[in-house]
Design goal:
Helices cover about 50% and strands about 10% of the residues. By secondary structure, the chain is mainly alpha-helical. It has 2 domains: about 130 residues, no CATH class; about 80 residues. A 3-stranded antiparallel beta sheet has the order 1-3-2.
Length: about 210
């Protein structure tokens, strides 16, 4: 579950859009955990060798978050297995596009970029909100909305976590540390709809200041 500042930011966008006459509906995610797991396997297919080579060209050290990602316990895979993973990726893309076509009145998704406001240094724990979009190969644009406010963004002490990792994200929220940090959302559109998506983002920007 996203932290309170993110939930407030999303609600602020929803309210702003409805106030100027737009319709906002809830979207049921489709196999997002499977998508995250699949993309992690693709990224780790060569045990991070390509990522290491790219970083070595910069002469800079690998930041802790990336280091953890490329030091995965997942084994390096053979070419046939890689083909299978990409086949699974295309299958997932096709299934999700079919779902979206069933909801033809939906122009774009509004969702978090991350579960938290601007991340604490070297403490980015969850990439899933953007990972799924990367796997789908859909365009996205981030939109600044507001700032975390310790007076408004109170932790929900009654929240029941979905799993241990979700609990860890929830417990990571500290109103004092995040106070004043930027809060944004991402707007996601269909493939090859970049210009249309930018137009929608502009409309959200106008709605937020209306």
């Amino acid at each position: 579950m996203p932290h309170p500042p993110i939930l407030r930011g999303i609600q602020q966008v929803i309210t702003a859009l409805r106030n100027v006459g737009h319709t906002v509906v809830e979207w049921q995610p489709y196999k997002h955990k499977d998508a995250v797991d699949l993309l992690n396997k693709i990224f780790a297919a060569d045990k991070g060798a390509a990522i290491r080579r790219a970083i070595e060209l910069s002469g800079e050290p690998i930041i802790p978050n990336i280091k953890k990602a490329i030091e995965s316990n997942l084994p390096a895979i053979d070419l046939e297995s890689l083909w299978k993973m990409h086949s699974d990726k295309y299958k997932y893309q096709k299934e999700y596009l079919a779902l979206w076509r069933q909801q033809s009145h939906v122009d774009a998704w509004i969702l978090p970029v991350a579960p938290h406001a601007a991340v604490k240094h070297d403490d980015f724990k969850y990439y899933g909100y953007t990972t799924v979009i990367n796997l789908l190969d859909w365009p996205a644009v981030t939109i600044p909305v507001t700032f975390a406010d310790k007076e408004k963004d109170i932790m929900n002490m009654q929240y029941k976590s979905m799993n241990d990792f979700d609990a860890k994200i929830h417990e990571d929220y500290d109103p004092d540390i995040y106070d004043g940090a930027p809060v944004g959302i991402q707007l996601v559109g269909k493939r090859l709809q970049e210009e249309y998506l930018l137009g929608l983002a502009e409309q959200i920007g106008k709605a937020l200041v209306a």
